[in-house]
Specification:
Layout lengths: L5 H17 L32 E4 L5 E5 L16
Antiparallel strand pairs: 1-2
Length: 84
């Protein structure tokens, strides 16, 4: 992702990741298996898991501005984010 505004770029990436998880586009095999079926016992699909690696945010000269995602990024009301 490139752009002129760091806050706007963060919003776009947050929205992309949130949308992917809402559509269950992550890896469901990483979620603890209850059965060999793709759904849990109650018929609800297993949650998708996305593993996001931190990246360095730099300016045009290569100076470090931030690391994304930080502990204050990816805060969703409807999705549980586990930080390693």
């Amino acid at each position: 992702m490139t752009g002129e505004s760091q806050p706007t770029c963060k919003k776009v990436i947050d929205a992309l990741l949130h949308g992917m998880l809402k559509l269950n586009l992550g890896d469901t095999t990483l979620f603890p298996k209850l059965t060999d079926e793709p759904v849990n016992i109650d018929g609800i699909p297993k949650p998708a898991v996305l593993e996001v690696e931190p990246v360095r945010v730099v300016d045009k000269e290569g100076k470090l501005l931030a690391v994304y995602p930080s502990r204050v990024d990816l805060l969703f009301d409807d999705i549980n984010v586990i930080r390693g």
